[in-house]
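Onboarding guide, step 5: your first structure request.
Type a short instruction followed by the sequence, for example:

Predict the 3D structure of this protein.
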Amino acid sequence: MKNQTIMQLGLTHQCAHIHADIKRLIPESDAQQLINAGFIDCSYGNDECPSYYNPQSKEDVQIYAVDDINDDYERVSDKITYMLNHNARPCATIYESIADAIAVCGSIKQ
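The system replies with structure tokens like these:
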């Protein structure tokens, strides 16, 4: 992801700097899909990866951008996958595509 896009997504909560190393691995096209779907950055420093939510959604659901690390927390590739967090509970499904993660995120109901 380009630095300008990182700043655009992180502007609301001033969290562009959090997990910036992982955010730079997110493909720019994926970041643009997040923006187009209304998502903004809600990353926290005590999380392991960046997170994004749609403030227009009534559901408590976030998309996590997960980097490819081993058991020693060493990055083994630049691949990014996505997973959802709903009501503070991580969902086990890993999404290879941001479009799939966005679609599922939008279909979750209480």
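Each response can be followed by summary notes, for example: The helical segments are 3-10, 20-23, 28-36, 98-107.
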